[in-house]
Design goal:
The chain is an alpha+beta fold and 323 residues long. Helix content is 26%, strand content 31%. It is globular. The structure holds 2-acetamido-2-deoxy-beta-D-glucopyranose (7 copies). Keywords: Glycoprotein.
């Protein structure tokens, strides 16, 4: 009872079977993860204490593994818990083995920090904007109780068997190989409950939701005593227009105006700006997004134009119940 329209919208039969466009473009799955370009440099190394090959330890089936919901304000090492006050949170999952007493943290995040996943680099020697936007799963031994519990959440939400854990571990490895690029934005038609989601984000909380759904599918019962809220970063727009990929836009003289427009758009959001440049950029961004009602979204390695609508951009901290 669902079909994909020529414009790329996934229609689903809802109440009384009035077909409603529920989601537009979903994150693409890739065959494998390519090596990151050497131009991309991590400010902080990715997954420093994880296994080099991303191996996850095997658990005996007789083991009972506790599952924890972990949440903490983003970038707290830099801005204290300021971002926590705006509810910009990072999510992860914890596990502890009752047989060995060992515990583990599993999270999904940017290889080259959030800014690099949200906006590209404009390199003089390259015409197309250059993205350092890979994200990946990191599994490592230990749960830093203080880090998660002090300004965030550390809550046990269930127990699973060793076999359920091992099955989940296999799924994580596959998910990590095929879902490669971080996507900050969720794009919706309006803030109402029946809005169309044009593009879904692909970030740390989406990984956590996918993992919970997988655990539920494997038979785990998860429950929380408190509301399980997550950060969403929304853009609001009318129906997006597909523009094309790098070679289509930046490789053809016929589309030069569009190419220049996209470069100008992202020039506003370039990383490493001085304070004055940043203040000017903020005004330019306001003009482009709010006054010109225009945003160029890069999704699945392709560009889309978004005809922006009020309230344009919003950060929410809203409930997503456990499965
Ligand atoms: C983003 O990528 C650039 C270029 O590789 C790198 O210098 C920088 O450390 C990365 N991180 C941030 C936060 O800009
Ligand atoms: C996921 O992929 C990244 C990048 O290749 C790798 O460093 C990491 O170990 C992998 N994680 C898991 C759990 O497989
Ligand atoms: C994880 O293990 C450490 C070290 O044994 C311990 O201090 C901590 O309380 C454990 N945390 C959880 C949530 O099990
Ligand atoms: C929690 O926030 C306070 C500031 O409100 C900060 O001093 C403290 O270091 C934070 N705790 C952790 C574990 O990050
Ligand atoms: C959302 O859709 C439902 C079912 O189609 C309908 O009953 C409800 O009134 C709609 N809500 C809004 C705010 O449009
Ligand atoms: C870019 O899009 C064109 C069609 O518009 C397609 O033929 C080409 O294979 C695409 N390139 C990549 C790298 O996906
Ligand atoms: C959690 O989400 C619910 C519903 O989405 C909202 O009403 C509530 O205010 C949120 N809690 C916080 C602390 O923001």
């Amino acid at each position: 009872s669902s079909f994909l329209s020529p414009s790329g919208c996934l229609y689903q039969c809802t109440f009384y079977c009035s077909f409603r466009c529920i989601s537009y473009v979903t994150p693409r799955r890739f065959d494998h993860r390519p090596a990151a370009d050497s131009y991309c440099e991590a400010l902080y190394p990715f997954c420093p204490t994880g296994d080099q090959d991303g191996r996850i330890p095997y658990m005996r089936d007789s083991d009972v593994i506790s599952v924890y919901r972990l949440q903490t304000p983003v970038w707290e090492f830099k801005y204290g818990d300021l971002l926590g006050k705006f509810h910009i949170m990072h999510d992860a999952i914890g596990f502890s083995s009752s047989e060995t007493g060992a515990n583990y943290t599993m999270e999904w995040y940017e290889l080259f920090q959030l800014g690099n996943c949200t906006f590209p680099h404009l390199r003089p020697e390259m015409y197309a904007p250059f993205w350092c936007n890979q994200g990946a799963a990191c599994f490592f031994e230990g749960i830093d109780d203080l880090h998660w519990s002090q300004n965030g959440t550390l809550e046990k939400i269930g127990e699973i068997t060793g076999n359920q854990f091992n099955d989940m571990a296999q799924w994580v490895q596959d998910d990590n190989e095929t879902g490669i690029y971080y996507e900050t934005w969720t794009v919706r038609s309006d803030p109402g409950p029946n809005a169309t989601v044009w593009f879904e984000s692909y970030d740390c909380s989406q990984f956590v939701h996918r993992t919970y759904r997988k655990l539920a599918e494997l038979g785990a019962k998860l429950s929380s005593r408190t509301q399980t809220n997550y950060t969403k970063i929304y853009l609001y727009s009318g129906e997006p227009t597909y523009l094309g990929n790098d070679s289509a836009i930046f490789g053809q003289p016929a589309l030069k105006n569009l190419a220049v427009d996209i470069r100008n758009f992202y020039h506003t959001f370039r990383p490493h700006q001085s304070f004055t440049d940043f203040a000017i950029s903020l005004l330019e961004a306001y003009k482009k997004v709010v006054l010109d009602k225009s945003f160029y979204l890069y999704y699945n390695f392709e560009y889309w134009h978004l005809p922006m609508k009020p309230p344009y951009v919003q950060i929410t901290y809203e409930e997503v119940p456990l499965p």
